[in-house]
Amino acid sequence: MGDMMSVLGERLKKLRKESGLTLDQLSSQLGIARTTLSGYESGRREPNMETILRIADLFNVSIDWLFGRTNSKGEAFLMNEKDTVMSEEDKKEVTEMLKKILDEQDKILGMHRSAKDVMEERLKLNETMLNSTASRISEAVFENVDIKLGGWIQRIERDIKDIREMITRLENKQDKMVEVLIQLVRDVITQKQSNED
Questions:
Q1: For the chain, where are the E strands, in sequence order?
Q2: Contacts of 10 by beta carbon, 8 Å cutoff, 6+ apart
Q3: pTM, two decimal places
Q4: What percent of the chain has pLDDT over 90?
Q5: How far from 45 is each of 2, 29, 35, 40, 104, CA to CA, in Å?
Q6: What separation in angstroms does the CA of 128 have from each of 124, 134, 148, 149?
Q7: CA-CA-CA-CA torsion for 142, 144, 149, 151, nearest 10 degrees?
Q8: pLDDT tens digits for 58-109?
Q9: Helix 23-30 × helix 34-42 angle, to 10°
Q10: Cβ burial, residue 57 (10 Å; 0-12/13-18/19+)
Q11: Three-class DSSP category at 125
Q12: What is the mean pLDDT of residues 137-165?
């Protein structure tokens, strides 16, 4: 996916410059932050499907061209009235399918965000408990009280490490979902075109 993101970044930057737009102007038109757009252009960030469709529509290019799968800019697949590849009925059907896919993606991403929020809250709680325990141990040592909490602290530290790993896995799953959705859109487009033939 890295090579595709770098191609997308290069082509997006080229389109922006050819159109005489600044980063601020284009990010405003796309409804994203300037730093986010800069990340897309440098290949450090991956846009979601909704943003990819907005870019293709804005510049009247195909998604395949944006990702370097073809050298022909073509027309924006769904958003152009001149599109002769699909009938209006087919366009509506594919648009509805894409909306459903995006809605499902939003639901799944929302669940991942919720899970991530819970994990982050648990992480904060464990860190607070660890700090509190360290403070108690200091006080206990100071007062010469023999408390054996070392194993408990190690478990909390392991939990913190596990939670951080789970957060990283959730973020990786989100990235993979975007890749799958992009491929699904390509497959739908290919199927529609082959049905036309």
A1: none
A2: 41, 43
A3: 0.40
A4: 27
A5: 10, 18, 10, 5, 22
A6: 6, 10, 19, 15
A7: 110
A8: 999 999 899 888 887 764 444 444 444 566 777 777 778 777 787 777 777 7
A9: 100
A10: middle
A11: helix
A12: 68
**Contact of 175 with 46, CB cutoff 8 Å:** yes
Region of 43 on the Ramachandran plot (φ > 0 left; ψ -120 to 50 alpha; else beta): left
Q: Find the helix or strand (DSSP H, E) in which 54 lies.
A: helix 49-59
CB 8 within 8 A of CB 51: no
Amino acid identity of 174? Answer: Q
CA–CA separation, 35 and 104 (whole Å): 27
3-state helix, strand, coil in the chain (%, to 5): 75, 0, 25
pLDDT in tens, 170-181: 777 777 777 777
pLDDT score of 174: 77
Q: Are 5 and 46 in contact (CB under 8 A)?
A: yes
